[in-house]
Amino acid sequence: MLLFTANMDLAGDEAYYWDWGRRPDWGYFSKPPMIGWLMGLVGWLTGNAEWGIRLAPLIFGTATLAVLFALARRLFGAATAFLAALLILLTPANTGLNLFFTIDAPLLLCWSLALLLFWFALDKPTCLWRWAALALTIGLGTLSKQMMLAFPGLMIAFVLTSKPDRHLLRNVPFWASMLIGTAFITPVLWWNTQHEWITLEHTKHHFETKSLSFSKWLSRTLEFPAVQALVYSPITYAALLVVLFYSVKHWSRMDRRAHYLIRFSAPALLGFFSLSLRQKINPNWPAVFYVPAFILLAAWFTGQLPFVARPFWKTWSLRVGATIVALAHLVLLIVFFTDLKGHKKLNEMRGWAETGIQAGQFLDRVPRPENTFVLATGYRYDAAQLAFTMPQHPRTYRWERSGRVLSQYEVWPGPEERIGDDALIFKNGNAEPRPLFAPLTQRFEKIESLGRVEVKLGEGNTRIFDVFLGHKLLSWEKPGTPKPKALSTEH
């Protein structure tokens, strides 16, 4: 992990969320506000240092493991808790969770903590503080990712189907904890009403389907379990499926502790398998539902369940998991000390520090620094990375050629608030310099070419931005608004 962070800059999403953090709000283009708030807090505490963003997911990942250890120990004892934590630690998914500061880090912590607090509340339903803590955790999780809204539904399903806990249907704190927790989504909904329900519109795209041939449908469907096996380590993933299958099969012999874990994992995972038959599933979507499954798996390995696990499963889950983690570190050594470090995917996270330094030098030389804004013409990551890596940390705008709202940069006020100002424009370049797009140049009094940002990324790979100075912005149409007829036929 240290080798990776020493050789790589922030991922595009991390820089993007960092830019959100500079403008705290109740919602953003594609996500609830928590990741933006956390990025803002980390930036404030560390002076927008990259090491702060790198440290944050490690803290969240460690806290999540600690909470899961506490839950497993409460349910099955210290030996099972240690094994559950070790099994999770030896997965590629955990490595990614601790490397990249995205929405999954706070979500998994809140989900794991909610599982622990709900079990505490079940043990002592008269304790109002336990229900209050659960309500707060559900609320914070809801502000992290919409998936947290599934937790109250699973709470109700558990109480309905668990005879010892059915009395909670008449328990006011039980209902209050769910209502208060889910009420945290209210300001997010209000924000969306002010922004044409942009988050909902974005989310809908994840569930769009298209007609496929049988071979392509089969390939897409098989991709889901294959990727899950890779993310959670192949033997461990197979063991998770086996223990869930046998747990359901031996349902009547399982105790309340096992029932608790099964209800918070098996139905949802089955739902995702079913959903994969009709559409593509992102690998991280079902992550929270594997959390209780790992504890159940550890309980099986330690003889806490009524059916016996063969030594093969425990031995090879740990062996294969440890081997994959070791290989991951070995691969990093090979990649970063050979020409493989110039691979396209790795290049997307390399060289941004130098890119920002060169870009910042252009900003230092503009004739009207107080009346000059930074404009990127490419993908949202370009705007975000420039904002983070330029020493001035400028407010960065983005030009979306399609005129559609495709990122947070189109949600925020754009250059329409900078009419009359100059723009330092960065355009993704090729080997040969190319002029700016005509629809963009017509919005300025004149365009002046300033030069190029060129950063060598490896053998034969260079990041290039052509740099222009747009003198006096004349007009700007906010994406999503009708265009004047004079511009409607531009190409």
Give your account of this protein's structure.
It is a single chain. The chain has 491 residues and is of the alpha/beta class. It folds into two domains: 2-332, no CATH class; 347-488, no CATH class. Helix content is 58%, strand content 9%. The protein is built from 24 helices and five strands. It has helices spanning 2-7, 12-21, 34-46, 50-76, 78-89, 92-99, 104-123, 128-142, 150-161, 172-183, 186-193, 198-204, 214-232, 234-249, 256-263, 266-275, 287-301, 311-336, 344-347, 352-364, 380-389, 408-411, 438-441, 485-488, and strands spanning 372-376, 396-398, 422-428, 444-458, 461-473. The chain has a five-stranded mixed sheet with strand order 2-1-3-5-4, with helices on one face. Strand 1, helix 21 and strand 2 form a beta-alpha-beta unit. Helix 4 packs across helix 6 (92-99) and helix 4 (50-76) runs parallel beside helix 7 (104-123). The two termini are 46 Å apart.
